[in-house]
Design brief:
Exhibits glutathione-dependent thiol transferase activity. Has high dehydroascorbate reductase activity and may contribute to the recycling of ascorbic acid. Participates in the biotransformation of inorganic arsenic and reduces monomethylarsonic acid (MMA). The chain is α+β, with helices and mostly antiparallel strands. It contains eleven helices and four strands, in the order E-H-E-H-E-E-H-H-H-H-H-H-H-H-H. A hairpin with a 2-residue loop joins strand 3 (56-59) and strand 4 (62-65). The radius of gyration is 18 Å and the shape is globular. The N and C termini lie far apart (37 Å). The structure holds glutathione.
């Protein structure tokens, strides 16, 4: 019996879901895209992901969720080139270390900066974000242009959705990574990422994304992520 096509439960606005979407496209997987509203925790949706979050990859009738796990799963279940994670165990571990850095040190200050309403909290988040982007930059392969070298891979995909939507922080917080020597390699990275065909394919209308982001910038977004930021808790 032929196994069904993998399904990707995604949403046009979700940077976490875009990680899985970009991975599917980069690997050339033949998949079915399903636009899912993750905020309506219907029984049907919770049966697909008990955490109720997108993305979810359903493959051979089983659900894989958590965006970083989805990237790894997609790479392993469709092991053809290009590999998203390096084969060498040390290089693989290093990719995971920097993917973890993105999750813990880049994504949270991004949302703190966008959601927090006091000048002091925004300044703290801005400084944290800049400091951490610098550390991320200094760990990049010197030649690049991607994080680990010539090809788009796991670490790039982990941060790409915030890179190609950097206009959100520009629009709402007048924030840009400075065009200085120390961030030069970062700009080379972001240009390569933003121009990659898989990234171009998932990009959404800028005005639509800005409108969706407005409640975040005004501090009243209703989502598990926004709640976590408001309560200074770990992101869902
Ligand atoms: N840790 C999760 C986070 C995913 C996530 O927060 N997705 C959001 C949409 S961007 C969601 O499903 N939110 C549903 C909610 O807040 O109820 C992952 O990396 O996959």
């Amino acid at each position: 019996m032929a196994l069904s096509k993998p399904k990707l439960y995604c949403a046009w606005f979700c940077p976490f879901a875009h990680r899985a979407w970009i991975s599917m496209l980069t690997k050339g997987v033949d998949f079915e895209y399903i636009e899912q509203d993750p905020y309506n925790k219907s029984a049907d949706w919770l049966a697909i992901n008990p955490r109720g979050l997108i993305p979810v990859v359903v493959h051979n009738g089983r659900s894989i969720y958590e965006s970083h796990v989805c990237i790894e799963y997609i790479d392993e279940a469709w092991p053809s080139e290009p590999r998203l994670l390096p084969r060498d165990p040390y290089d693989r571990a290093r990719a995971r270390i920097w993917g973890d850095f993105v999750a813990k040190k880049l994504v949270p200050p991004h949302y703190q900066f966008l959601l927090k309403q006091s000048q002091e909290e925004q300044d703290d988040a801005r400084n944290q974000l800049l400091t951490n982007i610098l550390e991320f930059t200094q760990a990049m392969d010197p030649e690049g242009p991607f994080f680990l070298g010539k090809n788009l891979g796991y670490v790039d995909i982990m941060f790409a959705p915030w890179s190609y939507r950097s206009y959100i922080l520009k629009h709402y917080r007048d924030f840009e990574v400075p065009n200085t020597e120390e961030y030069k390699r970062f700009h080379i990275w972001s240009k390569a990422v933003n121009n990659h065909p898989s990234i171009k394919a998932v990009e959404q209308d800028k005005e639509k994304v800005l409108a969706f982001s407005r409640p975040y910038a005004e501090g009243n977004a209703k989502s598990e992520l926004a709640d976590a930021i408001r309560k200074n808790k770990v992101l869902p």
